[in-house]
């Protein structure tokens, strides 16, 4: 087994075609086919189903591709970290950012790393907190912002701030950031419900509804913040979302939004890092810059729904080398 075989298998799986894989790898198509076939023979399993429409990974192929992709990623990281450079820190940092705050943090993080640490290559991923945690556990992320997670056996979490959920309504409703709205009032309108099991907000919302004697009239369920926002903007109903994800839409006049009360729904945002292994210098640098951006976004009011946890957001990342333990 060699790297050429791994690249051939991963590229064929991603493109669904030996021809396209050969083009991307700058190889002849027969060479790619031989590499895949020889690896299948070595492993004693079929990695692909060959059809007239292309290459489709088998169950064994999917499992192998997942592992092979990580091997190639680690080799890419190693190459970047040892490459000659005049910069003090080099390497790759793979970061998970919550979808509700990607507009606040992704661009500024890319800008500051490019300006201050050009030897670092950023890989960014955005998703719900549950997916980000799974990717951390699987080793696909170096660090991530997470909601409502304490330190576990595999992930160390540094609590950063408390983030409030907001009521979100069509522009005509006239909600305002300085006038909180009761949850019962929100639920009395046609409601766009987060889908259970896919949306952490749904669990918090179901718990909060126990304090209200109102049965919502659900007009639709949605599995993404973007889709909920789109439906509200179109006038189909009200919903509940992180304030950070909608306050800029309200400022643009696309919808209206206000903090929830009676009860408030609050989530803790933390920075999660794997506990196993040594934290690469590039990851430490990026984590420190991310903490600085989080603090600035809250203090400037751009992260409108958040308040910092006292002494929780340091100016640099606490020691996390060699899997240092800690509690959140």
Automatic annotation (TrEMBL):
One of its GO terms (biological process) is regulation of DNA-templated transcription initiation. This is Transcriptional regulator, LysR family. The keyword Transcription regulation applies. GO terms for molecular function: DNA binding; DNA-binding transcription factor activity. Residues 1-58 form the HTH lysR-type domain. Keywords: Activator, DNA-binding, Transcription, Transcription regulation. Gene3D superfamilies: 3.40.190.290, Winged helix-like DNA-binding domain superfamily/Winged helix DNA-binding domain. Belongs to the LysR transcriptional regulatory family. PANTHER family: NITROGEN ASSIMILATION REGULATORY PROTEIN NAC, TRANSCRIPTIONAL REGULATORY PROTEIN NAC-RELATED.
